[in-house]
Amino acid sequence: MLSQSLIEDVLTAALSTGGDFSEIFVEDRFTNNFTLQSGKIETCLSGRDFGIGIRVFKGLQSVYAYTTDHSKEGLLKAAKNAAQAISGNSIIQLAPFVHESVENIHPIHLNPQEVDKSRKASIMKNAYDSAKNYHSSISQVTVRYMDEEQNVLIANSEGKFAEDKRVRSRLAIQAVAVRDNQMETGFHGPGAHQGFEFFENLNIDHFANEAARIAVTMLDASPCPSGKFPVIIDNDFGGVIFHEACGHGLEATAVAKNNSVFANRIGEKVAPSIVTYIDDGTIQNEWGSNNIDDEGEKTRKNVLIENGILKGYLIDKFNSRRMGMESTGSGRRQSFRYAPTSRMTNTYIAPGTSTPEEIIANTEHGIYTKYMGGGQVNPSTGDYNFAVMEAYEVKNGKLGKPLKGATLIGNGPKTLQLVDMVGNNLGHGAGMCGSLSGSIPVNVGQPMIRVSEITVGGTKGE
């Protein structure tokens, strides 16, 4: 992507004013994004994005610059501009590069860049037809197709030199059901760190029908009551609530500055013993997985909470300096336009021993949330509110009528302490996560869990 001699020159220039560490991140990305609506392809966008990010450290000072000019003059100018913000007395020498052999633990069998657009359109049309034909009340279906190939090169003044190729694929299906003056929406968005074979092996009818089923079911839903209830949160994307309300609080981005309720609490009991919380970027072909992070460190399985005890954090290279702890292979960024920081990959609650049937049967009265929607969280406190896309009443240990308008309101660390049943049906859901270093692909996951009490916002008087 760039010659080794040029990279050496750039890293040296970045250190020219006294920095103690320099890094270059080279990215060459190819993307395809298509949208199908009303049975027709509405948008068809393909592109290439190439650029270089340059970072310099001096103690606890970090400077970042990026450029799309890959000429020697352009790169040296960007490196020297970054260096101008650093001042020091000594100039360090680059360590000899050690070319790391990056093991590909996410095999790609069919690169989407080599697949004709007509085959991609066929995948979208199949999803559209399945959702549209699910029920007569389905008035609109939108299908979005995405694939990308991201090639990266990461080298630094400590001698790291690593290259990697990442290929991701995703299909997003949204269905709208209408009856009289009422409109409801359902959504599913499966994705993987995988090639076009992902689409060929995907049960498209299942995901399309689920998106449509949610929308149709909610047409007959009753307004959700408000109050404090036991809440059962189903597996898969249900894990988004702890991703937002707890996961971000375990990232060094917050912990290193004591902006997290989990700061300085390693070894403390922060959850019931039935809760183990893991971030694992090595799960084969999962949406949030990588071979290496965006600082060139191998991704790994990081156990954050084990049997209720806080064991560790997600740490990037710069914040490892602040914390005096090693990087956990968690430095991630959206693109070369962002400096990396600590981010999640595939974060999930580990499976327990209860079956979903046991969890429901042991709940006398409460709310069952099958699919979560969007939400908001304050990372420094863990306070959250989340919309629920599909919910049901639980009465006398059985699922009852569907409920609409449910919102879960609470505090992540406190909610974590109130988990009293953990199922055995672990599932993962694909999503995008936004933070300081941009929007990145992540998985959220969990088995079905029960929280003994959550404040549910709904409709009073029901």
Structure description:
The protein is an alpha+beta fold and 462 residues long. It has 2 domains: 4-219, PmbA/TldD fold (2-Layer Sandwich), CATH 3.30.2290.10; 222-457, no CATH class. Helices cover 20% and strands 41% of the residues. The chain is built from 10 helices and 24 strands. The chain has helices at 4-14, 72-83, 117-132, 197-201, 204-219, 240-247, 252-255, 317-323, 356-361, 412-417, and strands spanning 21-37, 40-58, 61-67, 98-99, 138-156, 160-179, 182-188, 191-192, 222-223, 227-233, 277-280, 301-306, 309-310, 331-332, 341-342, 346-349, 365-377, 383-395, 398-404, 407-411, 419-422, 427-435, 438-446, 449-457. The strands form 4 sheets. Strands 1, 2, 3, 4, 5, 6, 7 and 8 form an 8-stranded mixed sheet that branches. Helix 1 (4-14) runs parallel beside helix 2 (72-83) and helix 3 packs parallel to helix 5 (204-219). The longest helix has 16 residues, at 117-132. The protein is globular. The chain starts with a helix and ends in a 5-residue tail after the last strand. The mean pLDDT is 96.
Write the layout of secondary structure elements.
Elements: H1 4-14, E1 21-37, E2 40-58, E3 61-67, H2 72-83, E4 98-99, H3 117-132, E5 138-156, E6 160-179, E7 182-188, E8 191-192, H4 197-201, H5 204-219, E9 222-223, E10 227-233, H6 240-247, H7 252-255, E11 277-280, E12 301-306, E13 309-310, H8 317-323, E14 331-332, E15 341-342, E16 346-349, H9 356-361, E17 365-377, E18 383-395, E19 398-404, E20 407-411, H10 412-417, E21 419-422, E22 427-435, E23 438-446, E24 449-457
Parallel strand pairs: 4-6, 9-19, 10-17, 16-23
Antiparallel strand pairs: 1-2, 1-5, 2-3, 5-6, 6-7, 6-8, 10-24, 11-12, 11-16, 12-13, 14-15, 17-18, 18-19, 18-20, 20-24, 21-24, 22-23
Helix pairs in contact: 1-2, 3-5
Keywords: Hydrolase, Metalloprotease, Protease
Domain Metalloprotease TldD/E N-terminal: 23-85
Pfam family, one: PmbA_TldD_2nd
